[in-house]
Amino acid sequence: MATAQKERDLLIEVRDLKTYFFLDEGTVRAIDGVDFDIKRGQTLGVVGESGCGKSVTGQSILRIVPSPGRIVEGSILFHRYSGGNGSSEAKTVIDLTKLDAMGDEIRSIRGAEIALIFQEPMTSFSPVHTIGNQIMEAILLHQEVTEEEAREIAVDMLRHCGLPRAEDVINRYPWELSGGMRQRSMIAMALSCQPSLLIADEPTTALDVTTEAQILTLMRDLQAEMGMAIMYITHNLGVIAEMAEEVIVMYLGKVVERASIDDVFHDPKHPYTRALLRSIPKIGQKSTAKLETIKGMVPDPYNIPSGCTFHTRCPSYMPGVCNVQEPKMVDVGNGHLVSCLLYDQGE
Ligand SMILES: Nc1ncnc2c1ncn2[C@@H]1O[C@H](COP(=O)(O)OP(=O)(O)OP(=O)(O)O)[C@@H](O)[C@H]1O
Ligand SMILES: [Mg+2]
Hints:
Elements lengths: L9 E14 L2 E14 L3 E5 L6 H9 L6 E14 L7 E6 L8 H6 L4 E5 L2 H4 L6 H12 L4 H14 L5 H4 L9 H13 L5 E5 L7 H18 L2 E5 L3 H7 L2 E6 L2 E7 H6 L4 H8 L50 E3 L5 E3 L8
Parallel strand pairs: 3-8, 3-9, 6-7, 7-8
Antiparallel strand pairs: 1-2, 1-4, 4-5, 9-10, 10-12, 11-12
Helix pairs in contact: 4-5, 4-7, 5-7, 7-8
This protein binds adenosine-5'-triphosphate (ATP) and magnesium ion.
């Protein structure tokens, strides 16, 4: 297993990404000009309310955006390093948006160099094959090993993911396992080819709090050991605080704030981020204390508001400004980026 990497080279560079769904009712601009980077070994948190484009961002990187959706603009540069831990690593850069979504090149990356885990493993595991067969299939697809070796790797990975009696689990069907065991098995499958990026899309949402905590610890331990980067998608800011180093906050297909975990929690700039933070329970807060909800509803995706798209719900709304001008991303210091007209005016 690869040792943890200390370097922080670029792994993924997303630039002005736009992914739209073309429906009879109209066009849904699910991702509408998104920029962010993921560095090697880093955990980037992606947060925002339901429908803001978190999953479609992950799907765009993997090139699995379902029809009638497609990437219409922008680039996703994937920096591929070869040579393992050698000092003279060669690097190639490919734009994932330029690849044929059905072609060999993205297939060799998907599941091997970039892996995905998501909320309900029942839908990623087939019910008619054993856990072992499915993990082995993934290994055999991407690695030059015999079936016997693939089986060993699979058992090893399952054990590594905290499944006792891995030799037994490997012969089980997904529905024979508990939710927590299935999620551990899915992580084992995702990590069996040692990806450089793991996209985790709400992987613990369906689990109880105790199992969730165990899975988060497992992912952090495996990351420390294997050195992969994680793009952690969730609507739960508490989970982000535990997992991520940097966070992007999304609203209606746009990134509204991008900052280190400390800045997001201790010095949030965007009114939307502030509202999200007010809507999570604080440690020590009485369970009877009322949590604030963000006022209003997420607008209909066919009728995105003009100007700043958050202006219809924003407590700092400036009429004649926010409904007219489109905010640009500005650096408010130390790489803390925010897209809000409160910071984008004057000087
Ligand atoms: N297959 C699809 N067909 C049509 N529209 C879609 C499809 N998938 C996503 N969308 C639309 O794209 C937008 C972004 O959806 P996405 O699934 O990325 O949201 P999300 O942030 O992951 O939300 P959640 O927290 O509920 O998972 C939404 O407006 C959604 O309705
Ligand atoms: Mg989602």
